[in-house]
Write a structure and sequence with these properties.
There is one protein chain. By secondary structure, the protein is of the alpha+beta class. The chain is 55% helix and 16% strand. The protein has four helices and six strands, in the order ααααββββββ. α3 runs antiparallel to α4.
């Protein structure tokens, strides 16, 4: 009923059979000559282990030398960083230093105190502005609850009112934080 056609497979004539046989023979000869020219040396188990230990020691020494170089390099980089870390702040404070020198010169010829005081207050404001840009903040202490994380109690005095018990009544020296880390505690008087 159904006529099934057989797929015809292409017939490849192999005229180059002699060439293929020649190539195979040549490959065998090359392989045989390589194995014949290299003497096969088998190492004993002890020699293999000694060779492996020597390789591992070499790797260990190289790794140790690399780590030692890394330590030296990072230590040198840290020292350089510490030496230049304050450069930015010092450069930004130079104008304030110049202003102080001008203020000192102005006091030599000035007879009035009010303008000199005003100039010094301007220099102080400029200095505070520069330091606050670098992350420095004053710790507000007066009339706040005494906190050992921010304050250092110099003395205790009887508090004038009950509300001021345990609170800071007076501040002898301002405290400062740098990037929210206390760098100087405020020296305060606490009400008892």
């Amino acid at each position: 009923m159904f006529n099934k056609k057989k797929k015809e497979e292409p017939v490849v004539e192999n005229n180059n059979t002699e060439e293929v046989e020649n190539i195979e023979n040549t490959a065998e000869q090359v392989n045989n000559s390589e194995t014949a020219s290299e003497p096969v040396v088998e190492l004993s188990a002890e020699e293999k282990l000694q060779q492996q230990v020597a390789e591992l020691n070499d790797k260990y020494l190289r790794l140790f030398a690399e780590f030692d170089n890394f330590k030296r390099r990072t230590q040198k980089e840290r020292i350089e960083l510490l030496q230049t870390a304050g450069k930015d702040i010092v450069v930004s404070l130079l104008p304030v230093l110049d202003d102080f020198e001008r203020a000192i010169k102005a006091t030599e010829t000035s007879t009035e105190v009010a303008p000199v005081r005003e100039g010094i207050e301007l220099v102080q404001t400029k200095l505070k502005s520069i330091l606050s840009q670098k992350g420095l903040k004053e710790i507000d202490s007066i009339n706040t609850t005494f906190d050992t994380d921010l304050h250092e109690a110099i003395t205790q005095i009887p508090s004038p009112t009950d509300e001021q018990k345990g609170k800071v009544i007076d501040e002898l020296e301002k405290g400062y934080t740098l990037n929210d880390k206390v760098i100087r505690f405020a020296k305060v008087v606490v009400g008892a």
